[in-house]
Each structure stands twice: as structure tokens, then as C-alpha cells.
Amino acid sequence: MKLKDKVKSLPLTPGVYLMKDAHGHIIYVGKAKSLKKRVQSYFQHSKAHTQKIKKMVSNIFDFDYVLTDTEFEAFLLECNLIKELKPHFNKKMKSPQSYIYLVIKMVAGKRVLEMASSIEENDGNLYFGPFLNKYTVERAITGIKDVFKINCSNPSMKHGPCLNYSLGLCMGVCLGGSALAQYNRILDKIIAFLNGTDSEILEEIGQKMVTASEQYQFEVAAKYRNILGTINALLFKEKVIEFTEANQTIVVVESLTESTFKHFLIKGNKVLYREILNNEQPFETIKMNLSTYLKQSPLNTRIVVSKEELDEAQIIYNYLKSGHCRYRIIPNAWLEAGNDLLIENVLEELLNEILQKESQNLFER
User: Fold this and answer.
1) How far apart are CA 135 and CA 98, in angstroms?
2) Element (H, E) at 131
3) How many Cβ atoms from other residues are within 10 Å of residue 248's Cβ?
4) Are residues 302 and 325 both part of a single domain?
5) How confident is the model at residue 332, as a pLDDT?
6) Domains identified in the chain, total number
7) Residue 35: its pLDDT value, please?
8) 7-10 long-range Cβ contacts below 8 angstroms, 24+ apart
9) Dist CA 20 CA 15 (whole Å)
10) Which of 93, 108, 129 is the last residue of a domain?
């Protein structure tokens, strides 16, 4: 079959496509809500195509595809295939995720806020993360240092004040005394913020923004607003990690058609179980299958999201928050007590929500 005819025969359903070169090597893996529309777009002349896309398309000799029931499953499958196959053009066309950590380390007896690409065990430093975007972390650190004037370029506190002190970027940490004590108080607030125990740092930056605006210093106010935005971008990653590492058991239902649904059981950053349900399927069978997998799910296993697993964690988190599905968290206490009735009620409630949603959609159409 010719390549163009093969593209035309693709279904308008979710899935993953694997582009191959003349030697049969997989050179690119992608996901799509509609396979046909997405794959067709590569072979259409478009000014939006970058040189990298054009080069990739010129190397396509054939392609395979894998159908999925939902776009969520396509996301997960694409993520896993890219990690497994490491296709050439996925590296070229997608900037590699630069995982990074915030670290509070000791330099010449003084705590300093910096970046680190990995965690060194038992080195006495405090690490926060991982974060996906190195640029965002750099901007956050620069912004915090700028706002609170803790950008000292002479951490050893030798040979008098640093250059940044004369430029107004350092409060005088290099001189010691009261400035050093104030610096340490600010570092304590930063640590508390990164630990999720105190948001005073955000409140102070917000107040500086308001004050600057009231004084008609709009450029300064905009700078503070941008710093807040950068820090909040970091907080999102923290929420993903915190949500995943809570190791919660999550029951999910997504509508596929007017009469069929996809049911998932998720634990941490793993999908433990999935099944297509329909309106005519006995509810007792659904409950029995769910109960079987719930009992196999480890309750108190500690999950630590490594940088290799952060992609899956983010895909699951975004899916649950997207509105494309309905989900409930099953408390460990219910599972430990074997409280099947409460769990059954949750599942029935979810299915009813999906049915009502489909009925409403049908009415609106």
C-alpha cells in the first residue's frame, strides 16, 4: 500500500504512530487524539512546519500505529515508547527535559541558593525538586535573589563588599553583621516555602508588586508579577510530585460513547488496571473485578518520583484535572478495613456521573 493511501485509511481515533525510515528503523514516535488528522498533517504543505519536521518527513518510508481507547492512554504509550526506543527525531524535535533541583548548600560557612542537576546523597545540602525546566528554575532563583537583594558575589565575605553591593543587588551579606542575620532569616523563609510550610515569601513579593503599582512604578510591578508567575510554575511541579508520592488509590471512569466507558485503577504513577464497561454489563461483575485489583494493590508502599518517572506522573495528574474523566480517591483506611460497601458506592456514583454527563451531551446535541 502506498504511503498516502495508508494515511487515508487511518481511523479518526486516538493512538500512537511510529514513523520508519527506508531501513525499517523507527525514527519518530508521536501521539494523537485523531490519528488520521495528525499523521495527515505531516504530509500537507504548511508554513508552520519547521526545518526539523520537514527533514523528518523526508525520511519517512513507512509507519506503524497502535490504537488506544483514550487520548490519555496514547499519552502514556507515547511516553513509554520514546523512553524504550529513543527515536532519532524525538531527540531532535523535542528538547530533552532538563531535570533540575534547587539546592541550599554551604559555601564558606554561608547558605547559598543554587541549582543542581542531581542529588548527592549525605552531602549535608538541602534539595528540592525535581523540576522539569532548567530555565524556569534559573529565573526563579534570579528573581528571588533580586527581590530580596541576596545576590552576593562574594560569599566568602573576604576583601570587603562585593560588586553587587555597589550595584544595589546585595544587601551587604559580604559585610556580615546585621545584614547576614537578615539574609539568614530570608533563607529560612525560602526553605519553609519550598517545604510547603509557609507562603510568606509569595506574600512579600505580592505586596512589593502592589506597592510598586500604587507608586506608578509599573515596570517594577510587572517584574514582580513575572517573578511570582515563575515561582508558581515551579509550584505546579511540586503539586504533581506531592500528589503522586501520596500513593493514593484512584478509581477513574471516562466516557467513550453513549453506552461505553473506560475504567482505570491508578496507584501513584502507574495504571494497575483498565477495562471497557457498557451500560448492559452487570454491576456485580464490575464490582468484583475492581475488588480483585484493589486487594492486589500495595497500600503503604512509599513512592519516590524520580526524574525518569516524572513524565508519567505529570500525564496522570493532568488527565485527572482535565475534566475528560471522573475520578475518586479510595482512602487506605477503607482498603485496610475491607470496606467493600463504601468502595462500591463510590464506583456506582462515578458511573452515574458519567451517565448523566452523556445524557446531557446527547440532549444538547
Assistant:
1) 9
2) strand 126-131
3) 15
4) yes
5) 78
6) 3
7) 95
8) 7/36, 7/39, 7/40, 7/43, 8/36, 10/35, 10/36, 10/39, 10/40, 10/65
9) 16
10) 93
Residue 157 makes CB contacts below 8 A (sequence gap 6+) with: 108, 110, 173, 174, 175, 176, 180
Residue ranges in the chain whose pLDDT is less than 70: 1, 92-99, 132, 155-159, 237-238, 295-308, 355, 357-365
User: In whole angstroms, how large is the CA radius of gyration of the chain?
Assistant: 26
Cα separation, 361 vs 346, in Å, equals: 23
Query: 163 with 220, same domain?
Result: yes
**Residues 289, 246: contact at Cβ < 8 Å?**
no
Do 205 and 255 lie in a common domain? no
- Taking only the tens place, the pLDDT of each residue in 11-62 is 999 999 999 999 999 999 999 999 999 999 998 877 778 888 889 999 999 9
Which helix (H) or strand (E) covers residue 11, if one does?
none
Same domain, 118 and 184: yes
Residue 137's SS3 state is helix
Which residue range is the domain that position 13 belongs to?
A: 3-93
Residue 59: which CATH number? Answer: 3.40.1440.10
C-alpha cell of 116?
543542581
Joined grid coordinates for residue 80: 513509554
The pTM of the whole model exceeds 0.90: no
Q: Is 106 left (phi over 0), alpha (psi -120 to 50) or beta?
A: beta
